[in-house]
């Protein structure tokens, strides 16, 4: 086995119909000039028509024609190779898209032929529970209420020789030999008889929560779980992917959501073996999109280079957050809750228990009931199904991490059971008897339970609690623990040293297609921790202009408004576009929080007030909002530059999410998948490169961030970063700098810039460097080494990158 080839850095490109593989090929020279090592592509297998993200794969056998097809991948690979770039591709083994059944030949055949389909075992379906049918929740009401809206089209088609069943835009195949003239006439009785004869059952869409019989991705009914644990399914779903590796079209893979699989470690073992067979000379570079809870370690036996970097994101954000602001922001949050007649928060842990329990009692009921049905008979005989469901939901709500990997992680199950017994002592007996079954890997339900803890965590924490815990929005980010407010410099260095020692090839990130806020939106919001009293006063003024009547949500929304406020909002058209983005964000945030309004049932009065806040902030109050943005922007830019430098030069393999070489002020998806202006970025980079000693200002253009990003990527490409050593500062402002040496390359970054200015700047503070001359690649200035005044070193930028 030869040594694995790996990237020094990556650049994520979102491949879609509006930005195809051929268009991606056109920017490969720009990526080379930027200093990138590998191009990193979003999923490229054929997805649901119109899909902007590609995670709803419908055909595992070919590259999506809408994204450029196989020929487009060939051309992209050729362009990337010509520029010396490696290629990393995102793959989706856990699920397939089924929102438009006719576009997914496997799912279509299962609907048509049921258990007789050659693809019936590919999907994780509980056929017995469905009475031999797949339950499909698409109806606007219960069947009796909408049966007149369902029709039978007897015209044969290549994929439906017995005709089609239609319900508005939904189309389904008719089972062999079940089409009738009576059904074609449209009579209610004949339509019902036709439906009864099918291998699927049309259900009210709200039945998806409790009565489905196929595993989903989280709670997304249109994404059906795939059984890649079966060798024949693995081979069928990975043949095209392995072709990419075999033919030199891909050097590595990013595995989406491995926690959804029956056995993530086993899957990675099989993938590694398959990659070794497919590659003549090198073992593939594989990353797992795994979210680690604070303090949790990645399974050491996994055959992966590491995670996709949310853990690094959390550490970088927190070292740039002022711990002194925590108490004041907690007090502000308490006042906002009291003013909204909301119960006081007892803490992050209790909040997420309740939100996870809410998910377990609602949109994950189908999965929990399936576990109940699979429990050993003695348990089902001793306890009623409702009691077993209640106890399982409580254990899930108490589970401390995304999942366990039995036999590893048994302690997590025991801890969850112990907490569940404390919270629900009346369930103690059933919980005690459930745990041995849930820990017994000879039982299918033990694996199913492990597949269910992740969805409960993700939906309960990231997609609910993150929108309720609003004291500082920059901390409610994927992979982060908002209960951990800040990280001191020593703690940050310890985390970096551990990453360098244990997972040096793991990816690090600051922005992705899944982040709740772009990196520079968070960087600006983080400034509020340095000025909590000032922020509290300004928020009160903003609430006086417009309020939802829900204090904590007001805080969340106003933080988003100021954090993402773009330079383009200085023009009427730019302000209009921003207003539309904010309306979409506000609606998603409020419905995800599901405190006052929600996806299933909306509170129209609240949502009117919510949208009125956005209209006010971008209308009559725009100048007042802009004035506050102007007040904190410089500190936000400082945080943004520091975060980028730390990420790129720090331990791990840094990814630059598309477009984030300039200010990345997105909000939650789909806002973070907006089109990127590569023409402008190419122009700016050429100007910076041609300027020589001239340095761009730190301003709204983002040119300074492009300078920092490109120079840091180039240094990383050209210099082996073989060590990680913390550098020390001395003086009155020494706690305002994060600095480290990577072996002849040193990164120096400002932290807590607002407080630094309030304290009078760097004054006598020096960075203790070796007695070796160094040059700052951002400014071209040379320093003799030894104790170096930070007031001099950081006179132009809040960051420096020193090369011996």
TrEMBL record:
Any one biological process term the GO annotation gives: alpha-glucan catabolic process
Protein name as catalogued: (1->4)-alpha-D-glucan 1-alpha-D-glucosylmutase
Keyword annotations: Isomerase
GO molecular function: (1,4)-alpha-D-glucan 1-alpha-D-glucosylmutase activity
Root EC class: isomerase
EC number of this enzyme: 5.4.99.15
Residue span(s) of domain Glycosyl hydrolase family 13 catalytic: 17-438
Domain of life according to the entry: Bacteria
Gene3D superfamilies: Glycosidases, Maltooligosyl trehalose synthase, domain 2, Maltooligosyl trehalose synthase, domain 3, Maltooligosyl trehalose synthase, domain 4
Organism field: Microbacterium proteolyticum
């Amino acid at each position: 086995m030869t040594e694995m080839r790996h990237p020094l850095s990556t650049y994520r490109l979102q491949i879609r119909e509006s930005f195809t593989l051929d268009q991606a090929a056109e920017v490969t020279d720009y990526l080379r000039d930027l200093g990138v090592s590998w191009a990193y592509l979003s999923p490229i297998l054929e997805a649901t028509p119109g899909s902007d993200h590609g995670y709803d794969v419908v055909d595992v056998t070919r590259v999506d024609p809408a994204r450029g097809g196989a020929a487009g991948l060939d051309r992209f690979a050729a362009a990337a190779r010509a520029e010396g770039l490696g290629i990393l591709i995102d793959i989706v083994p856990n699920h397939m898209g089924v929102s438009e059944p006719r576009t997914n030949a496997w799912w279509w055949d299962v609907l048509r032929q049921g258990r007789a389909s050659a693809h019936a075992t590919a999907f994780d379906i509980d056929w017995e529970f469905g009475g031999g049918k797949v339950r499909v929740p698409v109806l606007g009401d219960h069947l009796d209420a909408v049966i007149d809206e369902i029709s039978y089209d007897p015209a044969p088609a290549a994929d439906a020789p017995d005709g089609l069943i239609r319900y508005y835009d939904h189309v389904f195949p008719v089972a062999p030999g079940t089409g009738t003239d009576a059904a074609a006439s449209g009579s209610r009785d004949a339509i019902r008889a036709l439906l009864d004869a099918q291998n699927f059952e049309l259900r009210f869409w709200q039945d998806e929560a409790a009565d489905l019989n196929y595993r989903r991705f989280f709670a997304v009914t249109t994404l059906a779980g795939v059984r890649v644990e079966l060798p024949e399914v693995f081979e069928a779903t990975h043949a095209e992917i392995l072709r990419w590796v075999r033919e030199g079209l891909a050097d590595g893979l990013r595995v989406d959501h491995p926690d959804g699989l029956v056995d993530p470690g086993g899957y990675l073992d099989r993938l590694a073996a398959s990659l070794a067979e497919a590659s003549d000379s090198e073992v593939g570079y594989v990353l797992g999109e795994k979210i680690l809870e604070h303090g949790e370690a990645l399974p050491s036996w996994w055959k992966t280079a590491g995670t996709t970097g949310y853990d690094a994101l959390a550490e970088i954000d927190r070292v740039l957050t002022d711990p002194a602001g925590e108490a004041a922001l907690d007090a502000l949050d308490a006042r906002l809750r009291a003013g909204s007649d909301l119960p006081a928060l007892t803490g992050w842990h209790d909040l997420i228990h309740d939100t996870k329990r809410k998910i377990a009692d609602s949109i994950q009921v189908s999965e929990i009931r399936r576990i109940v049905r699979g429990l050993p008979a003695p348990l089902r005989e001793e306890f009623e199904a409702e009691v077993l469901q209640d106890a399982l939901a409580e254990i899930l709500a108490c589970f401390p991490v995304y999942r366990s990997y039995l036999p590893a992680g048994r302690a997590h199950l025991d801890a969850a059971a112990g907490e569940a017994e404390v919270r629900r002592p009346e369930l103690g007996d059933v919980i005690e008897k459930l745990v041995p079954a849930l820990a017994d890997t000879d039982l299918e339900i033990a694996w199913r339970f492990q597949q269910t803890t992740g969805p409960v965590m993700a939906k309960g924490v990231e997609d609910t609690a993150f929108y309720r815990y609003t004291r500082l929005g920059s901390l409610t980010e994927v992979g982060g623990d908002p209960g951990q407010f800040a990280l001191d410099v020593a703690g940050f260095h310890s985390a970096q040293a551990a990453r360098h020692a244990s997972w040096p090839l793991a990816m690090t990130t600051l922005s992705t297609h899944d982040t709740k806020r772009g990196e520079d939106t968070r960087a600006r919001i983080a400034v509020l921790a340095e000025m909590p009293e000032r922020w509290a006063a300004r928020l009160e003024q903003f609430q006086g202009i417009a309020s939802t009547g829900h204090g904590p949500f007001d805080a969340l929304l106003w933080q988003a408004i100021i954090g993402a406020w773009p330079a383009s909002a200085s023009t009427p058209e730019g302000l209009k576009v921003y207003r539309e983005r904010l309306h979409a964000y506000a609606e998603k945030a409020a419905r995800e929080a599901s405190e006052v309004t929600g996806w299933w049932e909306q509170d129209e009065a609240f949502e009117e007030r919510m949208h009125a806040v956005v209209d006010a902030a971008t209308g009559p109050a725009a100048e007042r909002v802009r004035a506050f943005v102007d007040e904190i922007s410089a500190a936000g830019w400082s945080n943004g530059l520091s975060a980028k430098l730390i990420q790129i030069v720090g331990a791990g393999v840094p990814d630059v999410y598309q477009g984030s070489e300039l200010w990345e002020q997105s909000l939650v998806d789909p806002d973070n998948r907006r089109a990127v202006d590569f023409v402008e970025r190419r122009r700016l980079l050429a100007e910076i490169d041609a300027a020589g000693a001239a340095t761009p200002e730190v301003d709204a253009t983002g040119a300074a961030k492009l300078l920092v990003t490109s120079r840091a990527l180039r240094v990383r490409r050209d210099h082996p970063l073989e060590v990680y050593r913390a550098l020390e500062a001395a003086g009155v402002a020494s706690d305002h700098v994060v600095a480290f040496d990577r072996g002849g390359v040193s990164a120096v970054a400002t932290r807590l810039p607002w407080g630094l200015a309030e304290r009078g700047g760097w004054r006598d503070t020096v960075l203790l460097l070796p007695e070796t001359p160094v040059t700052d690649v951002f400014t071209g200035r040379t320093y003799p080494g030894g104790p170096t005044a930070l007031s001099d070193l950081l006179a132009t930028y809040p960051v420096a990158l020193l090369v011996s």
